[in-house]
Amino acid sequence: MVVPRVQAAIAHAFGEEFRDTDPVVRPSQFADIQINAAMALAKKVGLPPRDAAARIVEALELDGLCTGVEISGPGFINLTFDGTWIEELLNAQASRPQGGPETQAQRVVVDYSSPNVAKEMHVGHLRTTVVGDSLVRVLEALGHTVIRQNHIGDWGTPFGMLIEHWLEIGEDSPEAALLVEDPSAFYQAARAKFDGDPDFATRARLRVVSLQSAHEETLEVWQRLVDHSKLYFNAIYATLGVSLEDDHIAGESSYDPHLAQLCQELEERGLARISEGALCTFPAGFKGRDGEPLPLIIRKSDGGYGYATTDLATIRYRVHELHADRILYVVGAPQNVHLRMVIETAREAGWLPDTVEATHVQIGNVLGEDGKILKSRSGTPVKLMALLDEAVDRARAVVESSRPDLSQEERAVTARQVGIGAVKYADLAVGHDTEYVFDFDRMLALSGNTGPYVQYAAARIRSILRKAEEAAAASAELRGVAGEPTAEARIAVVEPAERALALHLLEYGATLRRVGDLLEPHRLCSYLFELSQLFTSFYDQCPVLKADESVRQSRLALCGLVLHRLSEGLDLLGIETPENM
Question: Most buried one in 50, 75, 347, 468, CB count within 10 A?
Answer without folding.
Answer: 75
